Amino acid sequence: xxxxxxxxxxxxxxxxxxxxxxxxxxxxxxxxxxxxxxxxxxxxxxxxxxxxxxxxxxxxxxxxxxxxxxxxxxxxxxxxxxxxxxxxxxxxxxxxxxxxxxxxxx
Length: 106
What we know:
Layout (H helix, E strand, L loop, with lengths): L1 E5 L5 E6 L7 H10 L11 H10 L1 H11 L5 H5 L3 H22 L4
Antiparallel strand pairs: 1-2
Helix pairs in contact: 1-3, 2-5
């Protein structure tokens, strides 16, 4: 996963990268609070993802800071929502739901 950090002109000045290998329970709890389960079928719809992001901005911020621990508050405040946050949220939703589907059914 990648999170670009942009300057005031919209130029990428830094990019955080993370390969999530495990998900902490705390992250799952926050993730579940973000998900609108009825909207999961619309993950190809950027507008639906944007709505989920805006409804759960605080839990999503905590999840993102868990993925990118060196991300500062100032950098987070300047993340471009449409260009960077919505695609990251979509990638995160798909990643976590994929991992949940891989869990043994028993």
